[in-house]
Amino acid sequence: MSEKKVWSEEEIEDIKNRIMENLEQVIDPELGIDIVNLGLVYEVNVFNGGYCEVKITLTTMGCPLADVITEDILNAMKFVPEITETDVKLVWYPAWDTSRMSRYARIALGIR
pTM for the whole thing? Predict the structure, then answer.
């Protein structure tokens, strides 16, 4: 039986930063912009032992691409060696709007 590694706060922050970098590779197929710059990633929680919970939303409630985006997130997490299990949770509150987008995403989509 292997012991769970206990990470320091600094190590957890480093892992979270690398997770966010990898999530920038997950592109919303409709908009062509990554989910981080679109502001769709609401929260990333990392737990000792390698479990990660990613809370995301979508631009619209009926988005038909939820499964595609979730699968892309799970694939991106494979590049973070400390993470052994990922749970993607879809949340609707607070509701997403364009104010959550980065400057990069606004410029790319022509939104002021």
Answer: 0.90
Contacts of 31 (CB under 8 A, 6+ apart): 38, 59, 109
Q: How far is it, in rounded angstroms, from Cα 88 to Cα 106? A: 25
Neighbours of 107 (CB within 10 A): 11
Q: Per-residue pLDDT tens, the chain, 112 aa: give them.
A: 445 678 899 999 999 999 999 999 999 999 999 999 999 999 999 998 899 999 999 988 888 889 999 999 999 999 999 999 999 999 999 999 999 999 999 999 999 8
Q: Nearest-CA neighbor of 34 among 69, 3, 2, 75?
A: 69
Return d(Cα 52, Cα 26) in angstroms, integer: 17
All structural domains of the chain, each given as residue ranges with its CATH number in brackets, are: 9-98 (3.30.300.130)
E strands within 31-110?
A: 41-47, 51-56, 85-90
β-pairing, 85-90 vs 41-47, is unpaired
N- to C-terminal Cα separation, the chain: 55
